[in-house]
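PT: before anyone asks, these are the final sequences, not the draft ones from last week. 442 residues across everything. Please model them as a single complex and drop the result in this thread when it's through.
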Amino acid sequence: MRVNFGLNGAPVTVDAEPYTSLVDMLRDELDAKSVKKGCEQGECGACTVLLDGSPVASCLVLAPQVEGRYVTTLEGLEKNSLMIDLREAFMENGAVQCGFCTPGMLISAYALLRDNPHPTEREVKRGIEGNICRCTGFTKILEAILDAAERIAPE
Amino acid sequence: MKPLPKFKYHAPSTVEEALYLLATLDEAEPVAGGTDLVPLMRDAACSPSNLVDLNNVAELNYVREDSGYICIGATATHAQVASSPIAAKAPALVDAVSGIGSPQVRNRATIAGNLCNASPAADSAPPLLVHEAEVAIRSLKGTRIIPLEELFAGPKLNTLEPDELVTEVRLPAPPEGAGSSFKRIGRRKAFTLSVVSAAAYVELSGGEITEARLAFGSVAETPIRTRAVEELLRGKALTGGLLDKAAESVKAEVSPITDVRGTAEYRRDMCGVLLRRALAEAAERAR
Ligand SMILES: Cc1cc2nc3c(=O)[nH]c(=O)nc-3n(C[C@H](O)[C@H](O)[C@H](O)COP(=O)(O)OP(=O)(O)OC[C@H]3O[C@@H](n4cnc5c(N)ncnc54)[C@H](O)[C@@H]3O)c2cc1C
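LR: through. Structure below.
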């Protein structure tokens, strides 16, 4: 079936079977390779994307369910100033090791800081509770997100 | 990589249309957030021929107050309920749904789905039980309204007919002097299923407990109320002695099993611990 939706600011049309998951459609049909496929059970967060602005696990969303909606992946936030701050903070704080969780982690961190630019440590932990990292032990990721929050100019 | 089994997808835009599809299609399953259903389908534990997506049914997406009830539409997500000022009148419910899964899960998953999935560990169930929630169920034949307890038939079994849809979950708006609380124990602090969960609801007048309701998750075949302990609490002052007695008595009223998340003995003991914590917080909120 044909699925029409907005991807990273542009309208797209894909011919997909209904039993295709959003993560597969994004990676295989639309070349959005930042979206990683991990557990396919909604547990690991590697496939996190924004659906109408809210983080969701794209392995649990069916392709036809995004009809008429907006999907944002890391590719669409390349020039976004908040994402640039986050990316740099991740690199400078050593928050990336193997890198597999990083795109999903950045999407969750982005949604968190967009809605709450100056979160407490606890709020950051809650913001990324759905993203699992097997390398860093989370401490450096936590530090990176708090560091990025400091780079955001106070209102 | 686990492909999903094949199915036909339907996206009705009205309840009427959804009910018609459920009544006429073979092996049709409704889907809301898909956070229970999609993993089950991937594991081939469930392979419906037809999926009826409720997400485009605009009339099912609301949290509102109506005739003294807090009404939650079938596609209201945990995130929607968690941030709703109306739902805030039932703090046990807000605390429970705020801790379900992760932001990614809460942005998709629904209360109706959590209840229809009928897991003994469903975190929204104990708070809704103590708030005496009712479930509105519709089919082409009409609407029936049942107490939430009657929706649960056993582990992962509900009492719905295949052509029925839960359209709303509703609970009486609590009066002045009421308070509720939800407490859970998981294997870690966040993003994990409950090993045991408990909810308490109390109404206080002077120092006296005029109404008490308690419910537990993951300690029986379905989420349950513990009515004998409730009876023990009614009409008394909330003293340390009464709490001790209630925490001990509750162990006789639950029937937990041992599984990967915890042993029966541990769960039974934790019912006493959670009862204390939940009752204390509910009473504080009632004052
Ligand atoms: C990573 C992860 C973490 C989780 N953590 C928790 C947790 O901490 N606590 C917890 O309780 N749960 C948890 N869950 C389970 C799940 O997210 C919840 O049970 C959720 O509320 C289910 O809602 P849903 O809308 O996604 O249901 P769906 O998957 O869409 O549906 C579940 C079942 O209910 C039926 N159904 C749905 N809506 C209706 C309706 N209106 N009428 C009739 N039938 C209907 C479907 O046919 C299906 O059988 C977790 C799941 C995941 C993937």
